[in-house]
Amino acid sequence: MRLILLGPPGAGKGTQAKMLKEKFNIPQISTGDILRQSVKDNNDLGIKASSFMNLGQLVPDDVVIGLIKKRIKQVDCKTGFILDGFPRTIVQAEKLSETMTEMGLKIDKVLDLEVNAKEVISRLAGRSTCSDCGGMYHEVTCPPKVSGFCDSCGGVLAQRQDDNVETILKRLEVYQESTAPLKQFYEKQGNLKAVTARGSVEEIFSRVLEMVK
Ligand code: ADP
Ligand code: ZN
Hints:
Layout: E1 2-6, H1 13-24, E2 28-30, H2 31-41, H3 44-54, H4 61-72, E3 81-84, H5 90-103, E4 109-114, H6 117-125, E5 127-130, E6 136-138, E7 157-158, H7 165-179, H8 182-189, E8 192-196, H9 201-212
Parallel strand pairs: 1-3, 1-4, 2-3, 4-8
Antiparallel strand pairs: 5-6, 5-7
Helix pairs in contact: 1-9, 2-3, 4-5, 6-7
C-alpha cells in the first residue's frame, strides 16, 4: 500500500501517518521529520534547510525530491509506504510520478485531510512535542499531566520553532499557493479521497481507514 497524506499544516498528517504505520507495518516518510533531524544533526542538508523552515517557506524542490527518491528505494519500502508532507508542489508531484513509473509502482491513494485555517492556528500554536519519543501534546486539548514533560517517557516537551503565529500564517499561505493545487492534480488521476480532519484522533483515523480499505 502506497499512500500520500495531503492537507494544510496542522491537519494531523503526522499523527495519522504514525497510526497507519503501526496498523499496516509500513514506513512513514515525513520530509519535515527528516529535515528537522538534519537540522538537529547540523549536517549539510540541515544547514541548507533550516533558514527556509524557520521562515515557513518551502525547502527547494530539488533538495526534497533527491531525498525522497533515495528513501523510497530502500528495502523497507518494498511493501509500501506513507508519504507525509511530500509532495508539496506540482513539480514534486510530477517527479514522484516519474520515479514511481520508473520503479514500476503506483500511488494507491491520496488522502486529503481537510480542516479550516482557524482550527489550524489554534492547533499549532498550542502544540508541543516530546523531544525523546515524539509524543504530541496541546496546552488546551491534550495537556501533559506535568507541565513541560511527557506523560509516557518523562522527556522534555518542546515547541517547534515554526509553530509561532507569524510563521504559521506564512505556512498556511504557502500551502494555499503551492500545495493546495495538488488536490486537482490527484483528482485528475482519480485517487484523491477527502477526509474530514475534525474530531478526535480516533474518529479521524476511522475515516482514514474507510478510505484506504
Ligand atoms: P507542517 O505540515 O506542519 O508545516 P512539516 O513537518 O511537514 O510541517 O514541514 C515543516 C517544514 O519543512 C515546512 O514548512 C518546509 O519548510 C519543510 N518541508 C517539509 N516537507 C517539504 C517538502 N516536501 N517540500 C519543501 N519543503 C518541505
Ligand atoms: Zn516522550
